[in-house]
Amino acid sequence: MWLKKLNPGANPGNIIKNVEGRTKCCGDEVTVQDFSNTATNLTANNVTGLRIDGADYAFTEAAATPADLYAGVNEAMKAAGYVDVENAGTRYSGTAGAAVVNIITSGAPVHLINGSGNVNLTV
Question: Is the per-residue pLDDT at 11 higher than 90?
Fold first, then answer.
């Protein structure tokens, strides 16, 4: 699951990463939800980014396959300051013609960005 880093300026090589909901201090609790999209046609409309927590994060490479979408979402979540603490924060399924991504996070991903409009993410 993706949790927000509490010390975004820390050395990325640190073994211990201080993230929300895991400090065991002062009521540090978060709600984690599983967000997903309805099947989207990546062949017709490549996904180019992710909107999370009110900001847009562009993918380095436009997503034309489910594997590309997975890589792009992971890239965007890291850029937004999240850490995948269990290496299971993003899942994908389907084909390029009907791709679905699941993002398990404490954040608020709103939609995937593509050229023909946005693809909403819902719980």
Answer: no
